[in-house]
Protein 1
Amino acid sequence: MQGEVLLNNMVKNALSSYQHVGYRASVEYSDPHQLVGMLFNALRESLADARRQIAGADLVSKGRSIARAQKIIYGLRTTLDFKQGGELARNLDALYDYCLRLLARASCENSQDALAEVSSLIGEISDAWQLMPTRRLSARQ
């Protein structure tokens, strides 16, 4: 039994290392658009994790997931180019600020509703972001 547990831990560590290498490689070879897409994906995962953790009363993990989501949103805010983006960049910045306030509320009140609202808002932005390359290519043809 002890050997089985040791083997399981070794397999988990190997998988974790492999995933980390795969992630680092995808980041290294991605363009800025793809990197922002990765941030959106990670944010959506963190929000889904937090919702599950609240439902399961795992409040410590919920706190970590919400903190991760907040860090990602701060990262997304740093990608905004207010000079070129103008009103769109200002609107996204305000939306990100609103999402951060909702996440603070979700953390304090264990609010599924606040997390659902952030998930919905981020989902719309993420979906639009994913369509951008397709639209740019279509406009050129």
Note: The longest helix spans residues 112-140.
Protein 2
Amino acid sequence: MGVLGGSFDPIHYGHLRVALEVLQTLPLSTLKFIPCKQQIFKNHAPCAAAHRVAMLKLAIAGVPAFEIETCEIQRETPSYMVDTLATLQQAYPQQTLCLIIGADAAQGFDTWHQWESIFSLAHLVVVARPDYDIKTIPWLQPQLLQRQVFFPDALCQEKAGKILIFPTSLLAISAQAIRRQLANHHSPRFLLPDAVLNYIHQHHLYERV
């Protein structure tokens, strides 16, 4: 099972293309999008959870293997990924979990709450992103020596603890840039699904920075 967390504020083609390429390449039956209540390392207050979930539903319609998991939104405590993975492991004990993070998030992975415990719960799939050199991430280099695998099928051989560097189509799209365009009355069309953009306009979202 793939696990892709984030604020998805809003969901865009950068998220969706990575998710699809991971789903098609890794031995996964499902990929769960997990919108957080509030990201720990971001000061930006996200759009209301109900709107972000609604936009996610519109974006992933037609891809049966894409699912939404709302456990972090429902949780009263902060959105710690280690807790989310433990919850998923308990709910799906037969599944192997693959946590998907971008190279930008990987830069600060060693500051995540109980980050080392994540390797006992899931494999880590680090997705290449524009302008981020994975080779320069200090914490990652010793972990790669111990944990790196080079082929997706290798993730099936153990329950957790491996790292796969995953090259994808590099789409330099950011939710922050989309929000800024909308606040400036510019169109972010072709950066996110039309259904999501229509929802944003319908509900007057992101009209202010």
Note: The mean pLDDT is 92.
Protein 3
Amino acid sequence: MARGAALLEPPLEPDILTKAARQAFPLLRLAEAHLVGSHLNAAKRHARGALELARARGERGHEAHALRLEAEIAARAVPPDAERLYRQAVAVAAGLGMRPLEAHCHLGLGKLYGGTGDRAKAEYHLTTAATMYRDLDMPFWLQKANAGLVAAQ
């Protein structure tokens, strides 16, 4: 995955910045690539840039995705920040009717609480995610939520 992130970086360099790269979406993809490659500082930098661009342009959907991504990054480094960011992402996603993203945020919160030992909150968010995934016919993610529920018990 490091190679993939390296392929995404050059178009985003300031001296060759394209119109597309000045938008939140490519920065979100780059941040995700860095997160998968465990390059947390780079992931955080690009996610923060995407969030700032999305907010400046009123791109609420990209804002919700950026908040969830920042929460995923924070969950690996600073869990208290992750909770706040997930909750913000849930609020934005729910307000926009972005149910798959909202479900992903509940899954993230469930995993986060499971890691801290707060079983009741973990089960609540994992059950919420599982219900949403079932309603949305997302079997791959439903399995992940159900596996989280088993682990939380």
Note: Residues 1-86 form one domain.
